[in-house]
Amino acid sequence: MVEQLEQGTIKCHAAVAWEAGKPLVIEEIEVQPPRAGEVRIKILYCSICHSDSYTLSGNDYAYRFPMILGHEASGIVESVGPGVTRVKPGDHVIPLYISECKECAFCLSGLTNLCLALNDTQYVGVLADGTSRFTCKGQTIYHFMGISGFSEYTVTSEYSVAKIDEDAPMDKACLIGCCIPTGYGAALNTAKVHKGSTCAVFGCGALGLSVIQGAKACGASKIFAIDINPQKFDMAVKFGATETINPLDTPNENIQDIICSKTLGGVDYSFDTSGGNVSVMKSALESTHSFGGVSVIISLADAGKKVEIDPRTLIGKKWTGCAFGGERGSNLNNYVRLYKKGELKIDEYITKSIKLEEINNGFDDLKNGVSVREIIIL
């Protein structure tokens, strides 16, 4: 039950991560009203992403506990603080974990989708003024990725919201907040996959499926989908993979050697979406050819993990990373419109919808590979 308190504070429910490695706890929290340049959002839907699980594990040491996780969300603007001009109450929005101020040197460069506006605060769990809008039992609760979507209400910077069409299905639009543009955009914007090219996608979870979908849209002629879980292959083919490979089927051969043997010495583009396995990152690089091959790292490795390669491996190749598929928030409504035209798959990602009280089961399902995406109804 949501309760409005004096001075605009709202009482509502959220899944609180009190400490790393422990189950989330459904708590009644207080959400303060938005301050200057901020937006308070009524979250409608939020899915569970590997990045949430990664941070909850404690491997991402930048964030502070206790916090409210969740970043793949959709909702409606409930109120705005002084000076906000980009959105108004009632607007349908997708919160952004990569801000877009449109004023900093990065935003103005045209060379990157990264933004400097919230760099010093977002990744330590506070808003731009250095404080949190969440409290629970008298204790400060920190923000996650500037979003904190596992709460019925949240507060973000106005730089961290993307307005979308009001007829967008919000239970689908939440996936445009992370996994779909992150993979699709990696093929489209970062790698710039060209028509008739060959691609290898390492990992067939939600990110891998998004890369496959993006590579197909770019006109790739051959897309290898690689995973050690063959149950994911039917979905990969549905999204556009032309061949599936399970490395466990040939334990005496390196996967990169297999891919090179099936192509002209390697693929044009490879993508690591394996979930942070540094040996897979290396295999992805080595599966590209040496006359202009491009390998893109999308996964997050555990803190302290290193990839060791022979520098000669890089001759003639490009090895790069990407964030949010190189997309800006101002472009997200294009994904909404592609979906509405039937040119972008979203429904197929959704394994099931769950209640907030079932969130820990949802994390277990994701970890055990029995779901692609579970959507929390808030």
UniProtKB/TrEMBL annotation:
Domain of life: Eukaryota
Keyword NAD: yes
SUPFAM superfamilies, A to Z: GroES-like (SSF50129), NAD(P)-binding Rossmann-fold domains (SSF51735)
Xref: PROSITE patterns: ADH_ZINC
Cellular component GO terms held in the UniProt record: cytosol
Domain annotation Alcohol dehydrogenase-like C-terminal: ranges: 206-329
Cofactor(s) for this UniProt protein: Zn(2+)
InterPro entries (alphabetical): ADH-like_C, ADH-like_N, ADH_Zn_CS, GroES-like_sf, NAD(P)-bd_dom_sf
Protein name stated in the entry: Enoyl reductase (ER) domain-containing protein
Lineage, top ranks: Eukaryota, Fungi, Fungi incertae sedis, Zoopagomycota, Kickxellomycotina
